[in-house]
Amino acid sequence: SPSALLKRKREIIRDEPFGDDAVMATRGEETSVGDRALYSVQRQVPTEEETAQQVHDAVAAAAAGTVWKHDTLDLRGCHRSGQYIATIVAAGRLKHLACLNLEFAMQVTDEHVAALAEWGTLRRVNLNAAQHVGDRAVTALARCSPDLTEIGLYWNVRVTDDSVALLCASCPGLSKVNLSGCRRLTDVSAKALGTLKHLEYLDITRCTFSDGGLTAVVLSPGPCANLAHLNLYAVATYTDVSFACVGVLTQLTFLDLCGSQSLTDRALVEIAEGSELLTYLNLSWCNLVTDVGMCAVGRHCTRLELLSVHGNRNVTSAFVAILAANNRGVGLKTLDVHGCVGVAEDRDGLRALMPSLTTFTHHT
What we know:
By secondary structure, the chain is an alpha/beta fold. The protein has 16 helices and 12 strands. Strands 1-2-3-4-5-6-7-8-9-10-11-12 form a 12-stranded mixed sheet. α3 (33-44) runs antiparallel to α4 (52-67), α7 runs parallel beside α8 (161-170) and α13 packs parallel to α14 (291-300). The chain is elongated, with a radius of gyration of 25 Å. The protein starts with a helix and ends in an 11-residue tail after the last helix. Residues 5-55 and 61-65 have low confidence and may be disordered.
C-alpha cells in the first residue's frame, strides 16, 4: 500500500550510511531492475507530509521509466514482477506498449498478463519460463492482441492445446513461436501452427507431436514457404516419414535434430537436397546416420557455418573430404566430430582442410 511504501522509505533513509547502492549491498539483498526502481523512488520522497497518492504516482513513474522504455516493458528475471505490473497498469500508461518481456520473471500470474493484454497493443510477448502463467494468459493475448507477431512460451507446462489453437486462429500474423518444453501439447496444436501463413521461426523442442503433427506443420503452405528456423531437439516420436518432409522447407537456415534416434540417411538426403540454404545443422547423437547422408549434406549444404555430428560412430573421413571440397570458403566456423571414431583427422587436420574452422565443440 502507499502508506507501507512511505514507511519503508523512512526506514531506508534512516538506515542509509553510504548511499543507495550501499544500502542494498549491506543488507545482502539481491536486487532486480524493478527492485531498484522501487527503491529509487522511495528515496526521492522528501518529507513525511507526502501524500499517499503522490507516493503511488512516484512509484509508478519510476518503475515505468526504469523497466519500460519506448514501447517495451522489460521485467526479465525481476523478482517482484507482479507488483510492478499492478503499479504500472494502475498508472494507465500502457497505450503504446508493443513488446512485453517476462522471461524468468517471478510472481507473474495469468491476471497480470491479461491486464497488460487488455490494452490491445502487444505485438511481441516473451513468457519463457514464467512458471505461473497458463491458458488464461494465452487466451487473453489471443482475444486482445490480434496483431501479435511473436510469442515465447518456453518450458510452460500449464499451456494446453485449447489456448494455443485459439492463439493461432486469432493472431494470423504470428511469425515467431517458441513452444519448447510445452509437454501438454498434442497434434491439435501442431495442426493449428500449420495455419500460420507467416511462420518463420518455430521451436518445438520436447513437444511430443507425432509424424502426423510434424508433417501438418511443414507441409502447410505458410510454414512451407517461410520457415527459416526449426528446432526439433530431443524429440523421440518422429520417424523418417516426417523427417523427410522437412526437405520441402527451401528457406530453412537453422535445423536442430539433436538426439533424433530414428533419423536415417534416406530422410537426411531429402533434407540436404531440399534445404540447401542451411547455415546451422545439429545432428548430434543421430546414430543411424552414415556417410551416405553426411556426404549429401557436404555436397548440397554449402553455406554451413555450424555442423555437429557429435557422438556418431558410423561416419568417417569420407564425409569430411566431401565437406571440405564444398565448404572451402569463410562460412564453416564450427565442426563437432567428437566421438566420431571413424574420422581420422584431429583439429589440426580439420583446420588444414577447412581453414575457416575456429570451434570444434558444440554439443557438450
